[in-house]
Design goal:
This protein has 675 residues and is α+β, with helices and mostly antiparallel strands. The strands form four sheets. Strands 9, 10, 11, 12, 13, 14 and 15 form a seven-stranded mixed beta sheet that branches. β14 and β15 form a beta hairpin. α8 crosses α15 and α9 packs antiparallel against α11. The protein is elongated and about 140 Å long.
Length: 675
């Protein structure tokens, strides 16, 4: 940051500020006056244009109504079409429209092919017993061709240098519609009419330009007068000039405001001069302090980066030998050990497992701190993911005798788009914590969703437990780095306090929200909300919650080649509380089926192809004829193809885990659940 140097303000600076302030005020006043004048004047033009258009439209409608009323008047038909009477026309039509409506000309034409003139009070618009003049022939032809579509028509016509408004209708009788004549009312656009417009709508200089070629577009507003699509003239006018009054108000007021602003600016400048010296010294001190802070921050960033690299490196270095140690402990457990040795090995296994989890948390924490973790979006079956986590952690709930279940709301979509790895981490951390701090009762995963529209939804996941709960005073700091609850909890449950901090960082990375509701001794509810794109919505056939577990164990029939107490498959099934009956081949199993109803039958498919006949499900299915069908699950070696997949309801491939078996059995049994 650059240094500030001390400066002094002199009289010429003050004068410059004064002149600059005055100039700005004057320019602002000028543009305000100009803009106001232009806006008001344009508004007057728009309003007067709308008024004149409305006046002409009203006049046309009035003439149309008049010509229609005279045309359909029964006396008109009797005195014109039936018994032609010019005296009656002069007295009842011509005199009426002249006196009351300022329409000076009336003409009547026969409906023959050439429109013979029956009556006209102006030779320009027809001579008795002569054909229609050319000025009216085209409107009459168009009106006749459109008979039945309109009762009348009103248009503008030009004859020489004069423009007329002409309305045409039929003289007809409802009882004899086939016989009729044409009535024409003609009104010239005169100076008297324009003076009336000027008086009615507060206009000045209303003029008619009857020769379009002589019209030049200027500052005056104008309105085109058309005969059909042809321009035959222009109507021009000047709005009453009320806009200039704005200048009489703005200029004096603006001048006073300008003086006031200039005076205020002068006073402020005076105060700035007095405080200039002290402010300059303060700014120099602040600049020096900022430079020192920047240098300290650079050192801190270097130190933090070194710490992150060290944590990452040491985590990897510790994890490598620990993995080897875990492998050796696993091999050691398979040897013949006495009870004391088994206890020692179990203690070693638990300790190394805790240490590995701690190292993994430190490694994950260091990655999040250094910004090495990025989001990778993919399609996720959210229901399947939660079910897999449930199956993975279910043995812990069995060991602690806890009720462990999941629930999906009907609104939860089948497939969403998010980061599968990070989402799985969040749920695993929260559920593991719930199982860890719950001694009696239950742990429940509750998944709901809100459809936000446009293929977007908000997923809400709650982990509800009946554990020890959290005191009110520490909820605010629960997600801080290395935070642990004080007191007996620390002595009972180990941990470095990184789990919830990692969860918080991942949630922030995904743009989600997390929170907790808890009462001490009454359990906790950890929740997080995640916005995600909906890829596939849940259908009716998918709307079943088969990831939860039954409130009882399953009775299973296991068919495998060798039966002994060391059966790995049987051990995995019984480990989660299932009752397992074994048979060495399908023939023995077929004899057992009529006497016992099993929840599922598992067939451990042998690798020896020649033994496949002894383990074929065909005989089992034959033995179940007449009974409720029991699902058949095949257990095959990975890569083995020497079996008929159509004979099985489901196939599981090795290596086997409790989670894989639980998930497969849950899927195939459908509405049944494990407990």
């Amino acid at each position: 940051m650059s240094k500030f140097r001390k400066t002094k303000l002199v009289f010429k600076d003050i004068f410059s500020y004064f002149l600059g302030g005055f100039s700005l005020c004057f320019i602002a006043l000028f543009f305000t006056a100009y803009y106001s004048y232009h806006t008001i004047y344009q508004q007057a033009i728009d309003e007067s244009s709308a008024a004149i258009k409305g006046a002409l439209t009203t006049e046309q409608r009035k003439m149309s109504s008049l010509v229609e009323s005279y045309g359909y008047w029964g006396q008109t038909y009797n005195h014109v079409v039936k018994n032609f009477d010019t005296a009656w026309i002069d007295e009842n039509i011509l005199s009426d429209v002249r006196t009351n409506f300022s329409i000076p000309y009336v003409a009547i034409f026969d409906n023959d092919l050439n429109f013979t003139t029956l009556y006209s009070n102006n030779i320009n618009f027809g001579i008795a017993k002569k054909l229609v003049p050319s000025v009216l022939s085209q409107p009459l032809i168009q009106f006749k061709d459109g008979i039945g579509k309109a009762k009348s028509t009103t248009t503008f016509l030009k004859d020489g240098d004069k423009i007329y408004m002409v309305s045409i209708s039929k003289i007809t009788d409802n009882t004899k519609a086939s016989k009729y004549a044409f009535l024409v009312l003609i009104k010239p656009v005169t100076e008297v009419y324009m003076d009336q417009l000027s008086e009615d709508y507060a206009l000045a200089n209303v003029d008619l330009v009857a020769i379009p070629a002589e019209f030049q577009l200027g500052s005056k507003p104008s309105l085109t007068i058309k005969e059909e699509d042809k321009i035959i003239g222009y109507l021009t006018w000047t709005p009453r000039d009320s806009a200039t009054n704005i200048l009489k108000i703005l200029i004096p007021a603006g001048f006073i405001v300008g003086l006031l602003l200039t005076f205020i600016g002068f006073m402020i400048t005076r105060q700035i001069i007095r405080a200039n010296s002290g402010y300059t010294e303060i700014l120099e001190e602040l600049a020096q302090a900022a430079n020192e802070l920047m240098a300290a921050k650079e050192k801190s960033d270097i130190s933090s980066e070194a710490k992150t690299r060290f944590l990452s490196m040491m985590s990897h270095e510790i994890k490598t030998p620990m993995n080897g140690l875990m492998g050796m402990i696993t091999l050691l457990k398979d040897t013949e050990l006495n009870d004391t040795q088994i206890q020692y090995v179990n203690t070693m296994e638990n300790s190394t497992d805790s240490l590995l989890k701690l190292v993994d948390n430190i490694l994950e924490f260091s990655k999040l701190e250094s910004g090495e973790v990025s989001v990778m979006f993919s399609d996720i079956n959210i229901r399947q993911m939660v079910s897999e986590i449930h199956g993975l952690l279910y043995p812990i709930s069995i060991q602690k005798k806890l009720k462990f279940e999941t629930h999906f709301d009907d609104t939860v979509p089948m497939i969403i788009r998010s980061d599968a790895i990070r989402l799985r981490q969040i749920i695993l951390h929260l559920v593991t914590n719930a199982l860890k701090f719950t001694k009696v009762g239950s742990v429940r995963i509750n998944v709901t969703a809100v459809d936000m529209g446009n293929n977007y939804c908000e997923i809400s996941i709650q982990i509800i437990d009946t554990g020890i709960g959290i005191p009110d005073g520490i909820k605010e700091t629960l997600f801080q780095d290395f935070f642990q609850v004080d007191g007996d909890i620390n002595r009972t449950h180990d941990g470095a306090g990184l789990g919830l901090s990692i969860v918080k960082n991942i949630v922030t990375l995904l743009g989600a929200k997390i929170g907790v509701e808890s009462k001490l001794g009454q359990g906790s509810v950890f929740w997080f909300q995640l916005g995600a794109e909906t890829v596939t919505k849940l259908t009716t056939s998918d709307n079943k919650d088969n990831s939860s577990l039954l409130p009882h164990s399953l009775h299973l029939l296991l068919i495998e080649e060798e039966i002994n107490d060391g059966s790995y498959t049987r051990h995995l099934l019984e480990k989660v509380g299932n009752q397992v009956t074994t048979a060495s081949n399908v023939a023995i199993a077929a004899d057992m089926l009529p006497h016992t109803q099993y929840d599922a039958i598992l067939v451990n498919i042998p690798e020896n192809e020649s033994l496949n006949g002894d383990f074929s499900p065909i005989m089992i299915k034959a033995a179940m004829v007449g009974q409720i069908p029991t699902p058949i699950v095949g257990i095959a070696q990975q890569g083995d193809t020497f079996y008929d997949t159509n004979q099985y309801d489901h196939i599981i491939t090795t290596p086997l885990t409790s989670s894989k078996l639980n998930t497969a059995l849950s899927d195939i049994i459908g509405s049944k659940q494990f407990y």
